[in-house]
Amino acid sequence: MAKGTNKTATAPAAVMGAGGTTAPAAAILHLQVKQGCNFRGARANWYAVLLQHNGQPAAAYLATCKATPPSLPKSGVAEKPQGWLSWFLRHGVATLVAPQ
Description:
The protein is 32% helix and 14% strand.
C-alpha cells in the first residue's frame, strides 16, 4: 500500500477537561457558562448560543453551531464551532464538567 493512503480514524483515548484534567473519551462533558459576560460582534453571537446550552452536553452546542452558525465572517465560510468553544474555555468563560 502506498504511503499516506490509510484513511482510518481512531477515537482519542482521552478528552482534555477543565483545569487540564483528562476524562475518558466515552464521558459526556457538560458546559458550565459564566453569566453576564459582555462581548461585541461575532463573539457576542457565539456567546449567546453558548448561554442557551448552559448545563447541556458540549456536543449539543457544537451540533447547533455547525447546523446554523451564529455569525459568518466576510468570506461567507462558516468558522468551526470547536474553535469558538476552545476560545471560551481558554478564557474562562466556559468550563467542561462531568454531569451531576
